[in-house]
Structures are given as C-alpha cells and as structure tokens.
Amino acid sequence: MLRVENLCKSFGGVVATSDVTIEFPTGSLSAVIGPNGAGKTTFFNLISGALPPSSGRILLDGVNIVGQSSSDIVRLGIGRAFQVAKLFKTLTVEQSLRGALMSPLGKSLQLHGSFPLSATRDRAHQVMEQLGLQSKADVVSGNLSHGDQKLLDIALALVLDPKVLLLDEPVAGMGPEEREQMIETVYDLWQKGGLTVVLIEHDMEIVFRISQHIHVLSYGKVLAQGSAEEIRNNPAVIEAYLGTPQETHA
Ligand SMILES: Nc1ncnc2c1ncn2[C@@H]1O[C@H](COP(=O)(O)OP(=O)(O)OP(=O)(O)O)[C@@H](O)[C@H]1O
C-alpha cells in the first residue's frame, strides 16, 4: 500500500502541498483531480522523489521512502509516466525498452544483477503486448503518434515491474479515439494484475468512469475523497472544480 501522511511542500512563499494524507490501497485504481495549480504534479514529484517534501512521510508498504533518490524509489517499486512523454526519440520502441532493462537501474532490479540479452527481448515484448505496441517494435520513438509515445512512456515505467504506477494525464492532447484506446489499455493493465494505479486527469468523464477512489486537491489541500458518486455530488467539489451539475453533464 502507498500512503502519504501529512505531506507538505512549499516553494518559497507558495504552499503547493499542505498537510496531505492519502492512502492508495494495493491493487486499487485512484485518481487525483483538482483545478490548475492545485498541487497535483507536485504531489507526484514528491512521491517519485523528483522533489523532497518540506515535511511528512511517504510510506510504501510501511517503509518511509522520503529522502531516497528517484532511482532508488523506482527500484523500490514506484514507476511514473509523464504528461509529456520522456523518450529516447532516436531509438525504436524495442530498443528503448531493452535499454531501460539494460541500464544500471534495470539491471539492479534483476535477481542476480545481470539480465541476459534474450531475457530483455522477452520482457520488452511482454510489455509491448500488454500495451498493444507489438506492431510498433521497430518504429523509431520520435516517429510514433502522440498516443503511442504516451503508451511507450508508460511501457518504460512498466518494464521495470513497478508495484505502483503514477500516470500524469495519460490522455492529454489525444483525440477521442486515441483517448478511448488509452483508457481501455490502462484499465486492462490494472485489471490484470495487482498493480496500484494512480492517475492525474482533467477529463472527468474518464475519472468517474474508471476510478475506484478519487482524491480532490485544491490549493494544495485535500478538499474531498471518495467514490465517483460521492465526489460528483460533493457541494465543495462542485463549487471549487466541477461547476454546477448541469455543467458537469454538458
Ligand atoms: N518548482 C516550482 N517552483 C515554484 N513554484 C512551483 C514549482 N512547482 C509548482 N509550483 C507552484 O505550486 C503550485 C502547484 O503547482 P502544480 O504544478 O503542482 O499544480 P497542478 O495541480 O499540477 O496544476 P496543473 O493542473 O495546471 O498541471 C502552483 O502554484 C505552482 O505555481
């Protein structure tokens, strides 16, 4: 289970995260939502070790990971995909995934400290299959469609076998068809294994459709937490973020 406790982060006078306590049960699919500037990306930056918190604890299966480096946090089992995919644009999809496995980080995740070439190929293909990227194995990443670049970014996190997968706006910038495909892929991925998925997403239709738990941030604080039904009808959330019920359904 991933649990953050009393997490705080300030940038000078700006309080981006204010006493946030949230629990993400093992194997759950949760969304973190809120208006622009609410502190969602900062929250992911704190969990993934990109930024140190000002105070508070981040517990992964009971172990406080605050103070660990980003690569140690990946090693401990927290993977992350970004709003703008971070790719090696000149490598093919397969090369990128095998490269991740052959990197010191990838190697250190293997039981015996080394990973034979054939095994990197098998693992890369397994993940490509999970994400529907098999037919793109030999395509140079920079030539992939926007949607496939986002899938590859997720694949790069997934190939290292995380326990928790953080997805920052997985459908940002996509057309309706790509959006549906991405959501179906993420949902299938989550349903098939014990992966804990946490997503930041602005598309409320998607959030309400797939999330078991929704956490609403506003001005760095937790404004509300609950099921889709509870959040949809929460007056404070409607006022701060969703707008009137009529606007929500428009
Ligand atoms: N590195 C930084 N230095 C200074 N202020 C920052 C930094 N990163 C974030 N902030 C501030 O912290 C607050 C929260 O920003 P954050 O990007 O986490 O919000 P967000 O909810 O992800 O917004 P969006 O939905 O627009 O991506 C904002 O006021 C932002 O300006």
From TrEMBL:
Pfam families: ABC_tran (PF00005), BCA_ABC_TP_C (PF12399). This is Amino acid/amide ABC transporter ATP-binding protein 1 (HAAT family). SMART domains: AAA (SM00382). SUPFAM superfamilies: P-loop containing nucleoside triphosphate hydrolases. Keywords: ATP-binding, Cell membrane, Membrane, Nucleotide-binding, Transport. One of its GO terms (molecular function) is L-isoleucine transmembrane transporter activity. The keyword Phosphoprotein does not apply. CDD domains: ABC_Mj1267_LivG_branched (cd03219).
